[in-house]
Amino acid sequence: MRKAIALFSLAAFSALMLGACGGNSIMSQNPPGGPAMAPASLTIHDNPPAGVTVLSFEITVTGASLQPSDTSKPAVAMVREPEEIELEHLQAESALLANLSVPAGTYNSLSVSFANPHMTILNQSGAALSLPNGQSCGIGQACEFAPKLNQSMVTVQAPMAPFPITLSANSPLALDLDFNVNTSIQAGDLSITPAVTVKQLATPPGDEMEGMHFVGRISAIDATNKTFTLQLGFTGTSMTIATDTNTVFNFDGVCAANNFSCLMMGEVVSVLAQLTAPGTTPLAKEVELFAPENELALIGLVSKVDVAQNQFQIVIRDLFVENSQMSSIPMGFVITVRILPEANPLATFSIDSDGMTLPAGLNFASMSDMVIGQAVEFHPVSFTATGTPPNVSITVGTDKVRLEPSPVTATITAINAGANPPNFTLGSLPMFFTANGITTIQVDVLTTTQFFNDATGLAGLSTGNTVSVGGLLFNTTGTPTLVAEKVLLRTP
Questions:
Q1: How many helices and strands in the chain, by DSSP H and E?
Q2: C-alpha atoms less than 13 angstroms from C-alpha of 52 in its C-beta half-sphere
Q3: How far apart are CA 317 and CA 298, in angstroms?
Q4: CA distances (Å), 168 to each of 18, 38, 189, 254, in order?
Q5: Cα separations (Å) of 363 from 48, 215, 356?
Q6: Is the CB of residue 286 less than 8 Å from the CB of residue 248?
Q7: Phi and psi torsions of 459, nearest 5°
Q8: H helices of 138-190, where?
Q9: Positions of CATH 2.40.50.140 in the chain
């Protein structure tokens, strides 16, 4: 979402999880059920595409339901309200779609319905592309459009794994829904035929559930129970987050206490959270201030860097710009961001390290440290729009840029376990990188790096493996360096 629409994110605790290429998580929360109920979650993630580079892929999950093997019983709704998901940032993460209790029993299938796909592509095909909206996408151009949806519902059913699934009372279930963007996009007309697979995840105490990132504006604070509620970016979905004595607060000098008391209504915060068990409220491992109360903030993928002009282009992934002239900017829109030389004090660059201790020599202090493929958050202080719809160009001025985790999916070409830190090399990179002269990326593995999908650590990887890596990307000499927060082994 990152790894899958997770724990119906899409995963079932029943939790349902969804994965794709990257970062926000979405969840429906229901109170615990009775003794004949089992917690379930659902998550979703994405398999990145080949060919035309997809910079942003957004789709709405309008519903998801488990069908009992006893056909006389009604289907159990996992997703009850539409959830808008951006998949490209979920390559190495999952997004939480549901986290609720379902009746005990045997289930034969999961049906998921979709609507309103929206894509931003980078045309590196060598020829102009005709888009469904009648426009032409030129060579090297980033283009935003709404593709045709050929099929609105997908059902995964027995005997296809993991069905049938039997749930006993109070036994947790986590399902991970993998949305394969590559297979879903039809080569001829760029229309969408959803291709999904479902995987049952191990749940605690056997395995810790995968960590998830949430970014949102605080809309409620419960000081008694030490919980707070986030309103998530484009979707506006509300998410309740729990904290405990182990939660780390990082408010970067704004609040010296660095504890729960630092939370203020209207602040935008980045949360690294864990589902300790299906059906539970996500528990914050780290809470970091993203933007002070009521300050504007945008997040996206860097698609072009122009150091000479002191500016870069970004594909918008999320924004927190309520009641401003930027509130109409859609997800996936490409804008130009200009570093303001007149900013007082001068524009600042910083790193959202998610608690990682970074290897020496990695910097993000100026435009020269930027490279395509990075994810950044920035504070807009000026706004200029030119042209008329649909040909509108937007330039935003900023005085603050912060490096955020981003995903890369590629093939391991070399492993250096004896280096400090240990690392491996990614080759066969997406065309997005190779067309810009980047043919390899070094991945640094830390003691805190998490491995998923049967990868037991660096020793569990081999050359030739395809992996999705999520972490901080740095513009280092020779080849970029990606400091791995997560490594997800892709099955052939």
A1: 2, 33
A2: 30
A3: 8
A4: 24, 6, 46, 48
A5: 28, 24, 14
A6: yes
A7: -65, -20
A8: 181-184
A9: 406-489
Tell me which fold the domain 406-489 belongs to.
Answer: OB fold (Dihydrolipoamide Acetyltransferase, E2P) (2.40.50)
- Give Cα 89 to chain centroid, integer Å: 4
Give the pair of three-digit tokens for residue 289.
């201030």
Q: How many residues does the chain have?
A: 492
DSSP string, 211-234: PEEEEEEEEEEETTTTEEEEEETT
Instruction: Retrieve residue 300's tokens.
Output: 């996206």
Any idea what DSSP says for residue 183?
A: H
Structure-token pair, residue 347: 């524009």
Superfamily (CATH H level) for 297-404: Copper binding periplasmic protein CusF (2.40.50.320)
Task: Give dist(CA 240, CA 277) in Å, integer.
Answer: 15
Q: Residue with structure tokens 């500016």? A: 311
For residue 472, the one-letter residue type is: L
Structure tokens at 276: 């300790």
Any idea which residue has 């440290």 for tokens?
A: 369
**Between vectors from CA 392 to CA 389 and to CA 395, what angle results, nearest 5°?**
155
Cα atoms in the 13 Å half-sphere on the side-chain side of 417: 7
Q: Are strands 196-201 and 334-339 parallel, antiparallel or unpaired?
A: unpaired
CA separation for the pair 241, 221 (Å, rounded): 10
For residue 53, the Cα-to-chain-centroid distance in whole angstroms is 17
Instruction: Report yes or no: 215 and 231 within 8 Å, Cβ to Cβ.
Output: no
pLDDT for 372-394, tens place per residue?
999 999 988 888 999 887 778 99
Would you state the pLDDT for residue 12?
31
Which structure tokens are listed for 60?
A: 């709405």
Q: How far is the C-alpha of 401 from the C-alpha of 410, rounded, in Å? A: 27
Q: Which residues of the chain register pLDDT less than 70?
A: 1-51, 203-210, 234-236, 277-279, 322-324, 342-345, 492
CATH (residue range 212-291): 2.40.50.320
**Mean pLDDT of all residues in the chain?**
84
Where, residue-wise, is CATH 2.40.50.320 in the chain?
212-291, 297-404
Write the DSSP assignment of 281-334 as a string of letters.
Answer: PPEEEEEEEEE-TT--EEEEEEEEEETTTTEEEEEEEEEE-TTSTTTTPPTT-E
How many CA atoms within 13 Å lie on the side-chain side of 247?
26
In terms of C-beta density within 10 A (0-12 exposed, 13-18 middle, 19 or more buried), how is residue 136 classed?
A: exposed
Strand partners, 53: 122
Strand, coil or helix: 262:
helix
Report residue 2 as tokens. 């990152």
